[in-house]
Design brief:
TIM Barrel; binds zinc ion; 2 domains; eight-stranded parallel sheet; Glyco_hydro/deAcase_b/a-brl; alpha/beta; 14% strand; Sugar deacetylase
């Protein structure tokens, strides 16, 4: 009796072991199958969302930490690009000193033209004919600085919504071939959500983008541009805050370093009283970096970094 109860125990143990083996082999595969379906659906949904958002750059596709497959591909794709530099030259439009020298630089620059001045149209047209990008260099109220430095048609924070809109639209209508706007002065306006909201809304309606010259480190322009699905492009380095050839050349070295470490750099110089010196400094800087970076227009930067497809039809 003892012996048979022992063998019954053995049989029960064998049965239990068999059940355990069956359960460990069957249940995980079953649960995997259940899990696999939503995962596959999620993947499809993600792919569709990425495809849907391609024509219009949505804010989340710009986030570097986005996990969507599209943005990972884009990061890999971006890593293959050579380091790039976009030089924007401000204050064209008033036959300023250095205009000729800037147009004769051996690389692509972006020409920012102030509206309503004696050579606004001429400078914009010439830039376009040379294959250069044109921005409207929109005068905007600074926190400090003389009002007469602003130039005609400036956007001020005391203006009503309708007045701000009218000023932005008039400036855009005055400068042909513009693909975007950047700010002349503007440390007060770029910190003002209401006024920047109107400026960016007009940009969006017209298929343009806004380049924040970054005269105000508390600027709201970048964040608001992201929220509207516009490329949050901004200036990184001013070239001629001190007006000498050697200073500009030194700043160009910083531009080079940033482009090499951050993949691209946006920099701003000026035509004007010291425009020839700035052009000479840029020219000497170009000679020292032309083998390791690519000089591009701002339109190429927003196209490649933020997948921004301008809908502007140029005349
Ligand atoms: Zn300016």
């Amino acid at each position: 009796m003892k012996k048979s109860s022992h063998s019954v125990k053995h049989i029960i143990l064998y049965l239990l072991a068999a059940v355990v083996v069956l359960m460990t082999t069957l249940i995980p595969s079953a649960s995997q199958a259940v899990l696999a379906a939503p995962a596959a659906l999620a993947d499809t949904a993600q792919v569709m969302e990425t495809a849907d958002s391609l024509p219009e750059p949505a804010t989340d596709t710009h986030a570097d930490n986005s996990l969507s497959s599209g943005s990972v591909d884009r990061q890999i794709e971006n890593k293959k690009l050579p380091s790039r530099v976009a030089i924007i030259v401000d204050d064209f439009g008033n036959n300023m000193r250095g205009t000729e020298e800037m147009f004769k630089l051996p690389v692509k620059i972006t020409v920012a033209v102030m509206p309503f001045l004696s050579t606004s149209e001429k400078d914009a047209r010439r830039a376009h004919e040379l294959g250069l990008d044109v921005l409207v260099h929109l005068p905007m109220e600074p926190r400090q600085g003389k009002p007469e430095w602003l130039g005609p048609g400036a956007v001020l924070t005391k203006m009503s919504d309708a007045e701000v809109r009218q000023r932005v639209e008039a400036a855009l209508d005055n400068v042909p071939f513009a693909i975007g706007i950047n700010n002349h002065m503007g440390s007060k306006v770029t910190g003002d959500e209401r006024v920047m909201g109107i400026v960016l809304a007009v940009c969006k309606e017209r298929g343009l983008f806004f380049v924040d010259s970054h005269t105000n480190y508390r600027s709201v322009a970048g964040r608001m541009a992201r929220e509207l699905g516009l490329p949050p492009v901004e200036n990184h380095i001013f070239l001629d805050d001190v007006h000498s050839v050697s200073h500009v050349a030194k700043q160009m070295k910083l531009v080079h370093e940033r482009a090499m470490s951050q993949r691209y750099c946006v920099t701003i110089g000026h035509v004007g009283i010291q425009g020839k010196e700035t052009a000479a400094g840029i020219r000497s800087g170009i000679a020292g970096m032309k083998d390791s970076v690519e000089f591009i227009g701002i339109s190429e930067l927003v196209r490649d970094e933020w997948k921004w497809n301008s809908q502007v039809t140029l005349p």
